[in-house]
Amino acid sequence: MLKNLIFSSIFFISSAIGATLQIENGWQLLGSSNNLAIDNFKQSDIKILWLYDANLQRWSAFSNIKSIQKSIENTQGIGTVKSIKEYSGFWILADKKSSLELSLKANYDNITLKKGWQLLGSNSSFTNLYPFTKRGIKIVWSYNNKTKQWEAFSPIDSIQQKIEKSKKISPLKSLSANSGFWILADKEITLSIFSTAKSIKDSYPDFMVAKDNTLNELSKEFDNFTIKVTTNQIIKDTSRGSVAIFGMINNKNTNALLKLNSNYKKGTFFVVKVYQGEKLVGISKKLAYDGRGLLDFGSITIEPANKQ
Questions:
Q1: Which residues contact 66 (CB under 8 A, 6 or more apart)?
Q2: Which helix (H) or strand (E) holds 14?
Q3: How many other CB atoms are there within 10 angstroms of residue 88's CB atom?
Q4: How are strands ordered across the β-sheet holding 98-102?
Q5: pTM of the entire predicted model
Q6: Buried b (16+ CB within 10 A) or exposed e, 154-182
């Protein structure tokens, strides 16, 4: 996955009409939601552009340097880039600073992921990674140009735990606009791309945040969301034990993340609420505690914001 490459910083300034792409000297990884003609990259200081085609499972390239372009055309197994398809990621090597003017669109579309590796790109930034928690995605890789480190995220708990324990890889928390990123999928799936979640109405506005066994509010971070367990009852004492409350958010199990104070009485009601920042984006059904020590809140699916 070209992990041995060294990348320079990328600065991308976007607007509703177009964008100025400031290219630094050296390698950089970019991405776009648009179909881009190769003419956008001609007459620039780009030395070479590399593009990976998941359908053909091969690399293609383009160069403004005639000798390099001729070598590309004469090399078996390497295609020649004629255009860049929407939602593609691509590598650029430049020998000095330059800028490109590109006309871009906001993206709120679907991407069909092939089984295996694919190099994708998006005009949107992702402040959290819930679009990539869909079943079938194994891992997402990106390169942080500021820290000069590879970052990764996996919706699979065992893989994510290895990422978090690694000294060479940082956990991927977000993606900046117009970045490229690798995705490994174990089957063909459709990925919905959106950068903000849909706000929903709170059906239980009078419920308060429940307490854990130390009387702290039961509020936990989960995949860049905040989960709050709420209730209709007040308790004032700490407890030695706890009550596990669990379920699925975007097809990912919360496991043992949420543990209630065990002093809540049988018949107490609970509602699990999911927030993106201060905005409510997911809510469970109302749960009645039966005194058995376990509560399953079921499955909560976060929906994308309406297209703009």
A1: none
A2: strand 11-14
A3: 24
A4: 11-14, 19-23, 98-102
A5: 0.59
A6: bbeeeebeebeeeeebbebebbbbbbbbb
- Measured between alpha carbons, how far is 27 from 144 in angstroms, rounded to an integer? 13
Structure tokens at 233: 């009852």
What region, left, alpha or beta, does residue 203 occupy, with left being phi > 0 and alpha being psi -120 to 50 degrees?
A: alpha
* pLDDT values of the chain reduced to their tens digit, one per residue, 308 residues: 333 322 222 223 333 334 666 677 788 888 888 888 898 888 778 899 999 998 888 999 999 999 999 999 999 999 999 999 988 999 999 888 777 777 665 554 568 888 999 999 887 777 668 778 888 999 999 987 677 788 999 999 999 999 999 999 999 988 887 788 999 999 998 876 655 678 999 999 999 999 999 999 999 988 668 999 999 999 999 999 999 999 999 888 999 899 999 999 999 999 999 998 788 999 999 999 999 889 999 999 888 765 44
For residues 108 and 160, is the Cβ–Cβ distance under 8 A? no
Q: Is 91 left (phi over 0), alpha (psi -120 to 50) or beta?
A: beta
Q: Give residue for tokens 């402040």.
A: 127
- What φ, ψ does residue 70 adopt, rounded to 5°? -65, -40
